[in-house]
Design a protein that fits this description.
InterPro entries: YceD (IPR003772). This is DUF177 domain-containing protein. With 174 residues, this protein is of the alpha+beta class. It folds into 2 domains: 136 residues, no CATH class; 37 residues, no CATH class. It is 17% helix and 36% strand. Strands 2, 3, 4, 5, 6 and 7 form a 6-stranded mixed sheet that branches. Strand 6, helix 2 and strand 7 form a beta-alpha-beta unit. The termini are far apart.
């Protein structure tokens, strides 16, 4: 998905609606195991030579629970707001006030703005850091691997200090 500077300058407002395929851009390692197309509902406005892009993104994702590895289907809605300026970032300006204002500006070279990497970044940052299938997920047993949400495995969960493990033998006869 692209925004051409000439189109934006001549029209002043562009509506960007549709689907974006993020295959090859979004990582499928870690907890993100799958995803559908990204539904894009954006408006781009020309504000004093800058392109202000705002709107919402929606995507269906499949995550794995960080405790029990169960697949989780989730619909994610993401607010999107970015400001693009044509040109190169000028490193010669060192004033604090200008730095604060320019922190939210992305510099783009060329005649068009490619939105796909910025859309993928927004999706990545909006995903849960530690996805859970439910708040009280018990996870997998570290000894045998049984899903504790389905059944108890009967493994010992006592944590014995290895320095004192020899004392347990004294109490076996009792």
């Amino acid at each position: 998905m692209f925004i051409h500077w000439k189109d934006l300058a001549s029209k002043g407002l562009l509506k960007l609606e549709g689907q974006e395929d993020l295959t090859g851009i979004l990582p499928t390692d870690g907890s993100l195991t799958g995803y559908g197309p990204l539904h894009v509902h954006l408006e781009a406005r020309d504000v004093e030579g800058a392109a202000v892009v705002e709107g919402n993104l929606e995507i269906d994702v499949e995550l794995s629970c960080s405790r029990c590895l169960t697949a989780i289907q989730e619909h994610v809605e993401i607010p999107f707001h970015e400001t693009f300026v044509k040109g190169e970032e000028n490193a010669a300006d060192d004033s604090d006030e200008e730095d604060e204002e320019e922190d939210d500006v992305l510099y783009v070279s060329g005649d068009r703005i490619e939105l796909a990497p910025f859309l993928a970044e927004s999706v990545t940052f909006s995903l849960p850091y530690i996805p859970l299938c439910k708040e009280d997920c018990k996870g997998l047993c570290p000894s045998c691997g049984t899903d504790r949400n389905e059944r108890e495995c009967g493994c010992r969960t006592d944590k014995i200090d290895p320095r004192l493990a020899g004392l347990a033998d004294l109490f076996k006869n009792e």
